[in-house]
Amino acid sequence: MNKQGNKIGYVKGVFIVFITAFIAIQFYRPNKNSQKEATYSDFLTTEAAPEAVATLFKNSCYDCHSNKTEYYWYDHISPISWYVDTHVMDGKNELNFSVWRTTDYRTKRVHLSNIITNITEGKMPLSSYTFMHPKTKLSDKQIEQILAWVSTIEVK
């Protein structure tokens, strides 16, 4: 067999190993963040958010900062699903809007301050998220709406 044939055989072998590994990793499925409905402890329910503001939060924040993530078709393909699930877990560890009512008041104050800072400085929603989901990017008017409402919340 000549060198050309060896190269083709090597490339075929690598391709077969790659495809086999890709198929195999599809069987490892992390748990999805898929609570069915908002709970009694939800931030928007607890703080009686106006519908327009609630829509903004659900659209731009809740996928990563609540117990309910809206997954897209590509979020179910490994290794993308692993990245997404890790990202969601990290977001929920920072702030989980689904458990707002049961959060102590000091932590709530810190969270509200962080919401204001992160939205004002353009840190949230993350650019990696808005890149894949352009409709979640907040306009200046939407940011003003959120900030105006958040500043009215009295922490209890």
Set out the fold topology.
Elements: H1 3-25, H2 43-46, H3 51-60, H4 62-65, H5 80-94, H6 105-120, H7 127-132, H8 140-150
Helix pairs in contact: 6-8
Throw out a few tags for this protein.
156 residues, mainly alpha, elongated, 8 helices
Describe the structure.
With 156 residues, the chain is mostly helical. It has two domains: 1-30; 31-150, no CATH class. It has eight helices and no strands. 19% of the residues are buried. The model has no long low-confidence stretch (mean pLDDT 85).
In short:
This protein is an all-alpha fold. Helices cover 57% and strands 0% of the residues. The chain folds into two domains: 30 residues; 120 residues, no CATH class.
Question: What is the radius of gyration?
Answer: 21 Å
Beta-strand residue percentage:
under 5%
Intertermini distance: 78 Å
Helix content: 55-70%
Characterize the overall form.
elongated
- Per DSSP, the total helix count is 8
